[in-house]
Structure formats: C-alpha cells, structure tokens
Design goal:
The protein has 365 residues and is of the alpha/beta class. 32% of the residues lie in helices and 25% in strands. It is built from 14 helices and 15 strands. Bound molecules: adenosine-5'-diphosphate and magnesium ion.
C-alpha cells in the first residue's frame, strides 16, 4: 500500500484535481485506490459526487479522539469502480483547536494510526490536503511515505516551495521516516511564453524530483469535478485524462525504492552480467519541440536516465539523437516531448502499454 500526500500550502494549484484524477487514472489501470479528504472545504468529497452535509460520518470522528482510529473503516464510502473515499466535512476545521492541548507527536500521528488499522485492501492511498501546513497536513505527512507537490506553472508558483520542502525535510528528520517528494507542474498553458519559462525554471530547480508529465489547462477537468467523477470517467480522451494517465504511469513505474539515486553503479553492474551491451541510436525530429527525452523499460521509464543526447539543427527542424547502451533483447519506449509522452512517430512497431497507450518497440540483435 503506497500512501501519497498531495501537499502545497497554496490554494488553487491543483491539489484536489490531482488527488481525484490521479485516483481515477490509477483505478482505470486496475489499482484499488482510497482517497482521504483532509481538507475541511471537502472539495475532493464533492468532486467524487458526495454532498458532505448529507453524510453521517467523516474523518473528524476518526481523528478527534484516539479511539476513533478504528472507525476509519466505517467512514469509508465506495464512490466508483475501485475508488473509495474517507470524506471530509467543515467540522474538520475545528480539529486543530480541539487538539490544541495535546502533545505535538500524538496529535500529528492520528491519521497514521488510523491507517494502520485498515486491512491492506488498497494499492494506493491518496491524501488531499488543505491549503496550509497545519495539523491536518502534518497528519497527512506522517501517514505518507510519498509526497506530490502540485505547482501551478504561472506567477509566483515557486515562492514558498523551498520553505515547504524544508518543512517536509525537518518533519521527516523528526519522525524518523523518509518522505520521497516529487513536484508536478499543473495548469500549464503552453501558449504563453511565461508558462513555458516557468516550466523551464521548475525543471531546472527540481531536476529529477519533477514529474516529466505536465498537467495542461483543460476545462474538462473543471467539468468533471462538477459532475462528481474523475476525468477518466467523464471524458477519457480529453487532454486532462491523458495527462493524469501519464502521471499515473510515472507513479506506477517508480515506487520510491526504485527511484534513481545519485549512486547508480549498482544497477549498471547488474546489467553487465547479462551480456555485452551495444550502442543503439534513435532519432527524433521536430520543428516545435523544446525538450525531448526518451524513457523505456531499459531505464525504468525515467526519461533520459543512462542516455546520451545530441541535439542538432536540420533546416527548420531540430534533431535529437539518443544513444542507448542496450543488451540484445526487445524493449518498449516512448518519447517525452515537452512533458508529453508520445510514441515514436518514425517507428511503425508499437504495442499497447499498461494504460492502453502505444509504446514503441525497439529490437536489439
Ligand atoms: N489542469 C487544469 N485545467 C483547468 N482547470 C483546472 C486544472 N487543474 C485545476 N483546475 C481548476 O482550478 C481550480 C483549483 O484547483 P484545485 O484542484 O481545487 O486546487 P487546490 O486543491 O490546490 O486548491 C479548480 O476550480 C479546478 O477545477
Ligand atoms: Mg483542494
């Protein structure tokens, strides 16, 4: 069971949208997902088609007293194919005051303790957090082992993130568990130069902590929330659905323990035993693309990991040459073009991958 908190102290950066639609995309892929709505505004609860005022129970009962932990199971509601939710309500905003007299370490572990009482029925638990770093967010961070920070690709997006990372770092030191953090660019409007620049800055700043997928502006995401369903149900071929399917693929492809670290010598040694690797060269040509990377089963779907790149101009076009070192075998791959995952347009050989998108096939003899 992977527990992922969706955190940013800013409102309107896409936390709830990411929680609900990543849940939808993971479930569409066959995973069982639980959403924990930790925001008193209950937007995730609403976006999953529930009316908070009509519900008998919510996370408040689970968190307000130690004995509530065992009640988590009873507040969970089935809201769709493979998706359940533990709903929120405005009363959650009273929790901070209610627990003010309690010791910091016991009042911030309530959610973690409650999660421990659950049968391991779920592959993923996604926690939607409120737009501040208070008691509710601390509870989410203690319960989680992974964090996704949605970052709006517009003005001032990066302000405050450094501080948030610091807080997360301090917290993981104090509670003695490592939190693996990733940043997800959201609300991206590729038509504006400012957004493109900000995306560049985000990538530069966060490097491999940044998802390769970028969530584009897509009005269907708003409509789906109003309809009370994830976009994978509301409009599965909309850009928003593609983008969240792509994030789901990235999340599924790299659980934290398989994430690249600075020490990559271990896996290189492993592959050396299987036979002599060969240099394989592939090319991608495009007039508009700014950033082209390659990801496949040969590099754990981490774009450009272990790949040498050359860029050249050819008339109107730019040509990206990717040099891979591969042992004989058959491999699947895709290009990541300005954050969007695409099959290789020059390769007629492809196969549907786990999310139904086509992966290109590479054979090394
Ligand atoms: N990629 C997107 N395209 C269009 N609208 C979006 C997108 N992501 C979020 N929104 C809308 O922006 C608003 C804020 O998003 P939300 O996910 O609620 O942010 P947060 O939970 O961080 O406050 C909502 O109305 C939501 O529907
Ligand atoms: Mg929200």
């Amino acid at each position: 069971m992977r527990v992922i908190a969706i955190v940013n102290q800013k409102g309107g950066c896409g936390k709830t949208t990411t929680t609900v639609n990543l849940a939808g995309a993971l479930a569409a892929d066959g995973a069982r997902v639980l959403i924990l709505d930790m925001d008193p505004q209950a937007h995730a609860t609403l976006a999953m088609g529930l009316e908070p005022d009509d519900l008998d129970a919510n996370l408040y009962e689970v968190l307000v007293e130690p004995a509530g932990a065992s009640r988590l199971d009873s507040v969970i509601i089935d809201v769709g194919d493979k998706i359940d939710i533990a709903p929120s309500s405005i009363v959650l905003s009273a929790l901070e005051q209610k627990l003010a007299a309690e010791r910091h370490d016991t009042r911030t572990e309530r959610l973690a303790v409650a999660l421990d009482t659950l049968q391991p029925l779920y592959d993923y638990v996604l926690i939607d957090c409120p737009p501040n770093v208070g008691l509710l967010t601390f509870n989410a961070l203690r319960a989680a082992s992974e964090v996704i920070i949605p970052l709006e690709t517009s003005f001032f997006a990066i302000d405050g993130v450094q501080k948030l990372l610091e807080t997360i770092g301090l917290l993981s030191d104090r509670i003695g568990h490592e939190l693996s953090v990733r940043v997800l660019p959201t609300l991206y409007d590729g038509r504006t130069r400012y957004a493109r620049q900000t995306l560049g800055d985000i990538r530069e700043l966060f490097k491999e902590l940044c998802f390769d997928t970028v969530i584009r502006l897509n009005v269907k995401l708003r409509e789906a929330a109003r309809e009370g369903v994830p976009i994978s149900v509301y409009a599965k071929s909309a850009n928003g659905a593609m983008d969240y399917a792509s994030v789901a693929m990235e999340v599924a492809a790299s659980p934290p323990e398989q994430r690249p670290t600075s020490d990559r010598s271990a896996d290189q040694e492993e592959s050396a035993e299987a036979g002599p690797p060969r240099e394989v060269v592939v090319r991608f040509t495009d007039a508009e693309a700014g950033d082209v990377r390659i990801a496949g089963d040969f590099n754990g779907w981490v774009p450009d990991r272990g790949v040498r790149s050359l860029i050249a101009s050819e008339g109107q076009n730019r040509v990206w040459t990717k040099i891979l070192s591969l042992e004989p075998g058959t491999y699947q791959y895709r290009y990541v073009v300005d954050g969007e995952w695409r099959e290789d347009p020059s390769n007629p050989q492809s196969e549907p991958g786990p999310t139904g998108q086509l992966n290109s096939i590479l054979q090394v003899h």
